[in-house]
Amino acid sequence: MNRLAVVVVALLVAACGTEASSPALTTGPAPSADATRAASAQPAPATGVVDPAPGSDSVVYAPNPAAIEVAIEAGHGGCLDWGVPDPSERGPAYAEETMTLAIARELRDLLAADGIGVIMIRDEDEALAGDDYPPLDCHGPPWRDVNGDGFAGFGDDDLPEGTRTRDELQARLDLANLSAADALVSIHINSPTQDGVPVEVAFTETFYTDETAWGASETARLAEGIQAGVVDHLGAIASYERGDRGIAAHNFYMVAPPLFETTEERPDALRQPTRGGLMPVILAEVGSITLRQEQDLLVSAEGQAAVAAGLFDGLAAFFGGRDLAARIGLADAVDGVPRPVDGDGPPFWPAAVPEGPLGLRLTNTGIATWPEGIELVAGWELTQQPYLARAPEGLDRLSADVPALGPGESVVVEVELPAMPDRRGVAWISLRDGSTTLADRGSPALQLASEAP
Ligand SMILES: [Zn+2]
User: How far does residue 114's CA lie from ligand 1's centre (Å)?
Assistant: First the structure.
């Protein structure tokens, strides 16, 4: 079978950006932090000595751009998921997965040139959770049950609908979460239809969730910036009418918070991620593939550069207005990005607590100085999940003194975690100001496991 058969399947399963949409893993390179970083790395300072903000001409975060990590997810990808295929059947170059990857790479280059760290959730035509379906000539890596629902795979009638999609999207969320990305940007292109018939309109729309621990505030702000940026930049070069549909709170799988209990509106726990985004996540439907002129624009280098510039502007607006934020990492970590492990379960796991004294690097990644009295807190929770989707009950204050760092400043502190459990557990380490932790404000906690994956 050839790509034509794949197109048919893609048409069946790939409603763009919905729970039914499905990205898919090939034996490509492991996802990685972008190697191109500003030359702002400092020699390791003595414990407790404040490392000054390096300063830069970064547009996104001038005080210390290398301390920011943006995760970019190019929607769809792999042999089995082209996203919205080319409705005019001009081939894979015109499919959603190809355009989203090109835009993602363009955005990566803009951010890297600005000194910002980038995690490419996929940097090839690949998927993270399996892509193996010989009937459609897809011979990617074997399927993995990433979300822990007991199902994995594709094409078997006994599988719950959307199994492949949920495992794939969970793997993508896990990579962003365990990298402690400051923001996750999911790039999609819409294919509006009415009664199954494509509607020839062009517009931009951005989705987010308002159910995070930090409410809607930070995530909506990110969505607004992204939406405005893409609308402005695409509008400036489009020779046809485009719409601005604004932002909308909608729990698509990628932007949904973890669902701890089912609710009347959401009776099916399967339809939510097991471990939702721990940072502001947005899903941008940057344009529409159904209007031929827009599709041609989005396939062009000029159109892709415009979308990337819009996303970049949105990120700059977001980080330029984020007051209280932190990056917490192991003092000797190289990049903090997990590498996939082999097996048939989740590919991404937290690092194990290192032997000996635990050195943490704390960096102020907001635009406000940290309040006096901010303190490090940590707690363990027993779990067979790779990591925690929310803070454990009861966080203990750690003994280290945390200075009131200014924007971009960092410090290395040595701490002792609460006693490690005798069964597998994961430690959750955050900063607390009064009753609120920074994890509750969208800066992911550092998570370390009691044992190696
Ligand atoms: Zn899509």
Answer: 27
